[in-house]
Model the fold of this input.
Amino acid sequence: MSIFSRFLLNDDEKKISNFISDKFFYKPKKIKLFIQALTHKSKTFNSDKQSNERLEFLGDAILDAIVADFLCREFPNSDEGQLTRIKSKIVNRKSLSSIGIDMKIRAVLDYDNSRSINLASLEGNALEAIIGAIYLDGGYNQVKKSIVKIIISRYGDFADVLKEEIDFKSKLHIWCQRKRYALEYKVISEKIISGSWDYSIEAYINNKPYGQGRGPNKKVAEQIASKETIELLGGF
Done:
């Protein structure tokens, strides 16, 4: 948006433009996109206004793609299951709603407060709609910058997130403690293959064998055995 065109905005449009610039680090070009992104369907009855639902749909897909791209680059050795679980921690409804509330999106959101509306999800949905609007207005690289700054950066050290996610042995140990089950790891074999150690370990719960794991040391093999055991137990 040029300096000249900013003078053509009315007060409400200026408020929205400034909000997007301050909170999303992006200067809108087509302000109508962002007006739509901030228009809840409760304000579209008997009017010519368009709700933000289509932009929310687009923003959800864009957010998913950019976070997935980021995680694949950040964790090149993690499998699809681990990446999916980490992604779900970042883009789940509760997380997005919390971010939307922190950003005070409701202050610029156009909705009918006389109707019965789920306010908990209101700002999270609008957040996704704004992401969709930024994508249409500025393209992939611009919306990626916004997502990294307002969403991904909130999670700090992703190594900690990954560690929390893949520590299957601790998860299994805690689960067994709660159930008062005995957990034991037994070495099936240990040998040297091509000059490197190769361990095979099996996890036992109450003396019953479950998952098996192989690795260059006992710690890695136990993690893999724990992961397989958790999967055999249906996950938790």
